[in-house]
Amino acid sequence: MRGQASRKTILAFIGPAVFGLAIVGIAPLLYALWTSLHFFNLTKLRQIEFIGLENYANVLTDEVFWQAMGRTFFLLGTALPLQIGFGLGIALVLHKPGLTILKTLTRLSLVLPMATTYAVVGLLGQVMFNQKFGVVNQLLNGADINWIGDPTNAFAMIIFWDVWQWTPFVALVLLAGLTMVPGEVEEAARLETKSWWTILRHVQLPFLIPGLVAVLILRTADTLKLFDMVFTLTRGGPGSSTEFISLMIQRVGFRGFDQGLASAQAVILLIITIVLAQIYIRVFYKEV
Amino acid sequence: MAVTPSDADPGVFTAATGTKRRIANRSVIWQVVLLLAIMLVCVFPFYWMVTTSLKTQIVALEAPPVWIFEPTLDNYREALFEDGVLRTLINSLIIAVCTTGLALLLGVPAAFALARFEFRGKKDLWFWFITNRMVSPIVLALPFFLIARNLGLLDKHITLILIYLTFNLPIVIWIVTDQFRGIPYDLDEAARLEGASQFTIMRKICLPLAMPGVAVSAIFAFIFSWNELMFGLILTRSEAKTAPAMAVSFMEGYNLPYGKIMATSTLIVIPVLIFALIASKQLVRGLTMGAVK
């Protein structure tokens, strides 16, 4: 019978992994929880003192925190539709029959942005978007746009790189959905109508929904995680115009040295993430 | 050559009349143009990174940028041997290989248990693994920094090796569980009738068949660890400094050595690219944790 194993056997198999992950994943979280209930400043380590929920109260009423949160969701709200739009376009082009070799090459080139080290994307951004000797301004007919030093432009630049890096991911997810459409169904539909839009809406869309949901949840989680690329590109600036939530927590904790406050912010971020993960599981792993 | 539609194109069957054929041809041309455009957008930043890495500082700072110039490997030589990028690359390699190995060692048996046994709390375990994939590293970086500081573990390889387990272990367990599930249970059964222990069954029967999944998960773990910046930045100073952290440290000062920064970037990206291309077919599955196959 399936699943017949003694408790000891199961523990022997799964124990080491659980133990390992508990040490590096749970113990630090408990410590963060403890820190978040204290006044804990790296420059005033003698004055550590229990202050209850004061840090949480400060975070929840802190305008800067909510601004960073709003900025993060604004980035998601602008980048994700672009990623889905372009991604769907790319998936449809790749799904069209014919041109096998060219399509394989395109598919391989889609891997490049996804695999690029996030930090390197930011460094590359600095080089390509430089006002004076950047190639982007050159390609824009010698425009003299200050990308990195202007709040709006810097934000646009972050959107550009996020879209560049993650559109291929969305495209490949949606392509996987398109290939799930049974061949006969699609061919029958093509005999009925020539409009690609009708086919997309009525034949292909149902097969794309699971992929779209996965993209929505994972992109939300990844945007809340976003740090490396923005850190190397703008460090959150100019001002705080590109300071997203993870960058802000890092600044408060390591450049402002207020570990207590930063931990409270991190715990709140963690709660949001757990809710997201719950939704993800509910949608995709019913059978477990 | 590429403009001819293949036999698989349904357009060919319906394109009986000349007009229809012309429409079909035009749409093929469009497809070619679009495919080339997609490739160009994906590849261009790479092209620019590599060419910039081959420019001298003077050429790199020319405005508007030059496209044709005499390439030089000086940036690589200087970065690798004078600025110590080589050491940080070795650090990154040591850390990525060790954490991947450790993740496999702990993760493969756990994956076997998740695929083969029924037990209480399995669902919670699953949930915990996925949550780890989604948690922002900053949440762990704050307490980990304080703990590592108290234990004198700052700037040590082992610290990063351990903390990278938080995302490597879930990904390994994920992909390998999936792979184990695909192996018919009859094989286990037959071996058990001959008196093999569960451990022997895993090692001798299932693991060889699950090798593709193990390899892909190892590639993922390697890529994620190699690419990681935040922990490297916060938890290392010099001894265990990783390559991405090194690339960032070039960004200080007024006159930035762009050629050198791009040379370092190229050195960081090349190994990742090779691995990612090897695993390209599984990439989506890995990134969505199996939700999209």
TrEMBL record, chain A:
Record domain ABC transmembrane type-1: where: 69-280
Annotated localization: Cell membrane
Domain of life: Bacteria
Coiled coil ranges: none
Any one of the GO CC terms: plasma membrane
Database matches in Pfam families: BPD_transp_1 (PF00528)
Keyword terms: Cell membrane, Membrane, Transmembrane, Transmembrane helix, Transport
Topology of the protein relative to the lipid bilayer: Multi-pass membrane protein
Membrane-spanning intervals of the chain: 12-34, 73-94, 106-129, 163-182, 203-221, 264-285
BP terms from Gene Ontology: transmembrane transport
Family, as annotated: Belongs to the binding-protein-dependent transport system permease family.
Listed PANTHER family: BLR7065 PROTEIN (PTHR43005), SPERMIDINE_PUTRESCINE TRANSPORT SYSTEM PERMEASE PROTEIN (PTHR43005:SF1)
Designated name of the protein: Carbohydrate ABC transporter membrane protein 1, CUT1 family
Organism the protein comes from: Tropicimonas isoalkanivorans
Automatic annotation (TrEMBL), chain B:
One GO BP: transmembrane transport
Topology within the bilayer: Multi-pass membrane protein
Pfam families membership: BPD_transp_1
Subcellular location: Cell membrane
Keywords tagged on the record: Cell membrane, Membrane, Transmembrane, Transmembrane helix, Transport
UniProt cross-references to InterPro entries, sorted A to Z: BP-dep_ABC_trans_perm (IPR050901), MetI-like (IPR000515), MetI-like_sf (IPR035906)
PROSITE patterns: ABC_TM1
Every ABC transmembrane type-1 domain range: 89-279
GO CC field: plasma membrane
Transmembrane intervals: 28-48, 89-113, 125-146, 158-177, 205-226, 261-279
Origin: domain of life: Bacteria
Main localisation: membrane
Family: Belongs to the binding-protein-dependent transport system permease family.
Protein's name according to its UniProt entry: Carbohydrate ABC transporter membrane protein 2, CUT1 family
